[in-house]
Every structure is written in C-alpha cells, then in structure tokens.
UniProtKB/TrEMBL annotation:
Record-annotated Peptidase M20 dimerisation domain positions: 195-354
Enzymatic class: hydrolase
Highest taxon of the lineage: Bacteria
Name the UniProt record assigns to this protein: Dipeptidase
Family matches, as InterPro entries: Cyt/Met_Dipeptidase (IPR051458), Peptidase_M20 (IPR002933), Peptidase_M20_dimer (IPR011650)
Swiss-Prot/TrEMBL keywords: Dipeptidase, Hydrolase, Metal-binding, Protease
Pfam families (UniProt xref): M20_dimer, Peptidase_M20
Catalytic activity, EC: 3.4.13.-
One Gene Ontology term of the molecular function aspect: dipeptidase activity
Amino acid sequence: MKAYIAENKQRFLDELFDFLRIPSISADSNHKGDMLTAAQFVETKLQEAGMDKTEICPTDGHPIVFAEKFIDASLPTILVYGHYDVQPADPINLWDSPPFEPVIKKTALHPEGAIFARGACDDKGQIYMHIKAIEAMVAKNELNCNVKIMFEGEEEIGSENLATFVKANKEKLKADIILISDTAIIANDIPSVETGLRGLAYMEVEVTGPNKDLHSGVYGGAVDNPINVLTKMIASLHDENGKITVEGFYDKVIELSLEERAALEAAPFNLGEYKKDLDIAEVNGEKGYTTRERAAIRPTLDVNGIWGGYTGEGSKTVLASKAFAKISMRLVPNQDWNEISDLFTSHFLKIAPKTVKVKVSKHHGGQPYVTPTDSIGYQAAFKAMEEGYGKTPVPTRGGGSIPIVALFEKELGLKSILLGFGLDSDSIHSPNEHYGVFNFLKGIETIPLFYKYFKELSNA
Ligand code: BES
Ligand code: MN
Ligand code: MN
C-alpha cells in the first residue's frame, strides 16, 4: 500500500490540483455550473478508482455524488461521507496566491509543503484521500469491506437537501458505520480522533428605527439609532463572566465530569503558541473553563457579521433606519438547535427597547454529536491512527459542526467516525487555506487501516 502511494504521489497531487481549480462555492449562485462540474469530476474519479456503481443524484440544490462497491454480503459496509463544496474565497485580496490556483508552499508547521487553495483541507483534499485510498485498495486487491460513498455539495450552506435525500433513501444508505474526514488532528506528530462535534443555531436579526435614513445632526440624539441599539443589545448577550444571558440557554447542557474534563485536558496544548499564531495578547471566554474547553465542550454565541448605515469611502453623516447582524450559537449535548433558536428569538425580542422594531429569523442549524469511544468504529479509527502515525492517538472534542452527522444517527441509526487529518491552523474558511502534503498522503495511508480494523473488530 505504502509503495503504491509513493509511486503515484505526483499523480494524486496533480488530480487534486485539478479538483481544487473548480470553484465549487455552494453559497454563490454564480457557481451553480461549477458545482455540477465538481460533482462530475468526483464521479469520474470514483469510477476510475474502481467503484462499481456511481451516480449523480440531483436535489433541489446542488447534486449529491453517490457510489457503491459491493464485495461480499458477509463483510461490513462503510459509508463514506464528505463535501465537495467550499466556502466563498473572499476577501480575495488577503490571499497570497489565487484561491483556485493551487500551489505548494512550505510553512513552519508543514515543512514538507502544503497545498494552498480554497477547499484544500475543507473538504476537497480530505475527500480526495478517500478516493485515492479506495483506488489503492482496489489496485492492490486489499479492499475488504463493502463501500458506499456520499459526497454532497451543500455542507457549507446547511445540508438541507441532503437531509431530504437521507430520509428518502434509507435502504440505499444502509451501512454499518459512517466514515468522515472533515475534522482535524492536534499536530502532525500528535494524532488524535475527535469524539464529538458542536451543534449550531444560526440567526439573523434586523433592528428598525425611523422609517428612513436621517441626518445625524438634525435628528441625532433625539431619535434612537438602530445601530447603537443593536450593538447594545448584542453586548448584553454575555455577562461579565462570559456566560450567555439568553434565558434557558444552559438548561439542557450536559456538564462533563471532572474525570472527562481531565482526560480532554491531558491532550497537549500550548497556550503561548496558540496566542502567537493568532497574534493576540490574551485569550478570553467563559469563566471557569480552559481555552480548549471553551472551544469544544462549552456552548457559545458569536456575531458573524454586522452591518448598517454608511460603510463606503470617506464619511457620511447619517442615522440609519436599519441595522442587521448574523448571530450563531455553537451548541453542546443535550441542547436542541430548534429550542435554542426559539429561546434566542424570545429573548432578543424581549430586550428590545420600545424605540425600535425587531425581527429575528432563523437560518440553518444542526444538533451536537458525540461518539462513544468504546464503539467498534471509534476503536478502529484509534487503531488505524496508531498504526498510521506510529503513536497512540489522543481523544479530542471538536469545536466545529457538521450538522448532518446527528441526522445520520437519527434517520439511519448509524454512528459517524470523525477520521480527520487537517490542522486547526490550516486556515479553513479563511484566506490562505492550506492542507499539508504530509497530511494528504498520511490520510491515504491511514484510511485503509480503518477498513482493516473495522472489519477485524466487526468479526470479533
Ligand atoms: N469541516 C467543517 C467543520 C469542522 C471543522 C469540524 C473543524 C471540526 C473541526 C465544516 O465544513 C464546517 O465548516 N461546518 C460549518 C457548519 C455549516 C453548517 C456551515 C461550521 O462548523 O461552521
Ligand atoms: Mn468541512
Ligand atoms: Mn467548512
């Protein structure tokens, strides 16, 4: 297997580069054609890798690529999930090289080079590892599980059409485990396997004051300014201890035991390097929790964008009629995203002064998720990482969200294994996203080990 990967390394990279050149931005309707091109690219590569049956399944949004390879009814079936859509690349001027023209450059954490492109790590580079791992297993006659593939084009915009597809295709998606590479390890010399993801509730608020924009000299001071009001309302959403003030927000949160917290804290972490990497003098967050806990096992509330009034060149004296913000909350077990969205809505309406009208609307969301570490799937991932990296991996909890994962469990009764190979510092969703060449190749090497151990443990 290792020899096959080494011999074909350059071709694997060239193909991934072709894939990365397709600007498959799901959020931007101008790229609808590119989404189909990317889906077709993936389908062709799955055929070349040796999958028996492949199809592009249309949805009300972007298509889903589905493929199957059946070996034997006595063998377990692995359903691989991932996404071929990427986040928008803006602000483009902050990229050191164009986002859809991949290049390899060395970095401090990637001395062997990293591929710089939008989607390099999230998630095109990581789904491509699966296609190449399957190619290698088929070529070497070592594929020892049945495989199904489901790559969607709407993960970055909430997976709504995939949810419909899953509910309508339970038989087609029958499997023993779901395998996903769309998360991170601690460091290239510290392998880890994530045991959970946070949920998400994403809201948008609109604050309206006077019925038109006003001269801020003629009216300023006498009429409440929606931007002033909105920022004050937002500021009140956290108290002085960094706790979220939305009534009922923490009611269902499962507190981890001290043992569980200690186990997660045992994973290596360097706060100095963390701050240095981000160029910040101090960290800040909920009192009583460490930086890693704040970013993984605790729920949060953040403004993702805020706008209103004049933001063009120079200055304009204006008291805007409206102000807006996009606010997301990361959720932990046992919070329910619909419930939290409702709690947020009532709270935000309640704290609004009489001087303004407030509208709150709900975008997408998803439930939090955890995988038991004593399950066969988790154990197989653990052993695969151990053999792949030659080091005992560390269990971690991820702070990000893959909303469809909880739905997989609810609708298909299947657990998902988060076998990700990125680094938190790979700048996913940011300018200069990259993915280590080492990580890409190590992933291709490690995925077949998951198959091997999953089959072994399933028979045991
Ligand atoms: N791959 C990420 C999620 C992720 C990143 C999990 C790092 C764990 C570690 C995924 O593509 C993503 O960005 N998800 C979105 C949610 C979606 C609804 C937009 C997120 O977490 O913001
Ligand atoms: Mn992703
Ligand atoms: Mn993402």
